[in-house]
């Protein structure tokens, strides 16, 4: 494997065409300083977004620079646009919530390891475009959707990579959680909410 081109290795890693033995060998290797740029190059060759990919925030989710200079979280499978990376993408997904023991036993093998109904719930987040399962979280009932990764693009690119900081139409990238803006928009709208897919 050491004779293989580094980008080829990363491309195989990205597309899942690599044995566990090879993956384990890579995990044990000393990391090169340009590993991130090599990884981005591999992503640009294996995703529909080319060199507009800036960061990965999940197995199927990428932060992409849009043609107008703004940034969005996009689905790797269907390119669905989840919007501003500073807004929790889960607020734009389809959600299935499991609350009862019967529902838990569809995914847990034994009752002994199930969450306690009424105390906790299991949420499955799906892409609205292709229904790929993006994330599962087990949280106390009523707990807000967990914002697992609020990307600080400017710090990643300037402080860590020593590169040029991405900008957006507002100018300098502002690092802040804007999830509540989505909730406020819901609160101010008079449109009837479609509850057919939510909470099932
Ligand atoms: Zn999708």
Task: Fill in the keyword field for this structure.
single chain, 200 residues, alpha+beta, four-stranded antiparallel beta sheet, three-stranded antiparallel beta sheet, 6 helices, 9 strands, 26% helix, binds zinc ion
What is the succession of H and E elements?
A: HHHEEEEEHEEHEEH
Query: Strand order within the widest sheet?
Result: 1-2-3-4
Query: What would the principal axes of the Cα set say about the shape?
Result: globular
Radius of gyration, CA atoms, in whole angstroms:
20 Å
- The percentage of residues in β strands lies in 15-25%
The total of beta strands comes to: 9
Structural class by secondary-structure content:
alpha+beta
Average pLDDT, all residues: 88
Structure notes:
26% of the residues lie in helices and 20% in strands. The chain has 6 helices and 9 strands; from the N terminus they run H-H-H-E-E-E-E-E-H-E-E-H-E-E-H. The chain has helices spanning 6-14, 20-28, 35-46, 101-104, 153-160, 179-188; strands spanning 53-56, 61-65, 71-75, 81-83, 94-98, 120-126, 133-140, 167-168, 171-172. Strands 1-2-3-4 form a 4-stranded antiparallel sheet. Residues 75, 77-78, 80, 127, 129-130, 132 line the site of zinc ion (ZN).
Short structural summary:
The chain is α+β, with helices and mostly antiparallel strands. 26% of the residues lie in helices and 20% in strands. The termini are far apart.
Topology:
Elements: H1 6-14, H2 20-28, H3 35-46, E1 53-56, E2 61-65, E3 71-75, E4 81-83, E5 94-98, H4 101-104, E6 120-126, E7 133-140, H5 153-160, E8 167-168, E9 171-172, H6 179-188
Antiparallel strand pairs: 1-2, 2-3, 3-4, 5-6, 6-7, 8-9
Helix pairs in contact: 1-3
Bound molecules: zinc ion.
